User: Fold this.
Amino acid sequence: MAVRHGIHWEYLIPITTVHMLACLALLPGYFSWPGVALAVIGTGVFGTLGINLCYHRLLAHRSLKVPRWLERTLATLALCSLEDTPSRWVANHRLHHVHSDDDEDPHSPRNGVAWSHVGWLFRRAPERKTLAFFDRYARDILTDKYYRYLERHPMAILWIYATQAVIFWTVGLLVGRWIGGDWQAGQTCAARTLVWGVFVRTVLVWHITWSVNSLTHVFGYRTYATGEDSRNNWLVAILAMGEGWHNNHHHDPASASVQHKWWEIDMTYYAILLLKSLGLATDVIAPRHIRQRRAS
Assistant:
């Protein structure tokens, strides 16, 4: 069983607050189809590029390399979804791989699906905040001064999140003023842009990411006997742009791709290939079966 040490208010309060703000989208005055489109597109941009590509495949598994400026830009996109600092995200994910579905796994569904989905974030785990923990699981991340700064100044995450909220609101205000012809229309557009483009999008990114922790260790098919409960889940794979092929990932975590069959679509990997074609990604690690074929 996971060790639990009381409520982690630093996570509970922001997560609850953003969920409540996202609920404004249910009110008639805040609903708009452009807002829905903005949330969906934003989920792809911030979730796929920020969380999937940067936090997961680039930082946690070092499956590719990109220029430092691009890496930090992608990491900042991830911060705009309030999924913790790069070092904490990476350290917890690497811990998950080392102890997947064992007692030390921070979010195994063996402790309950709700626990693995979000509950683990609401319980303090002081053993995962120590220098020894970061030294073991995220030493390479903290060699970067930007990531060290974020770890030393955790409030910077909230400032980054607030800054993007101001940007979305301002853009919505100006667009609404231009289309509607007056500032009242601008304020209405700004409110909708903020709710859908920031709060609803953040909640979508959260639950999609959390579903990889929870659902893909409970539901789906197993191509490989990996020694834990990982599954390939087609629904999560669609929503998470490939991350739902989780059994494939646990079989070969070093790979930049989780597409092992032609129909296991991996949109995150296609984004990596696009960066590679533009000369912005190098040392892209292919799946194990391709690496073995090339070596033979």
Observations:
- The mean pLDDT is 95.
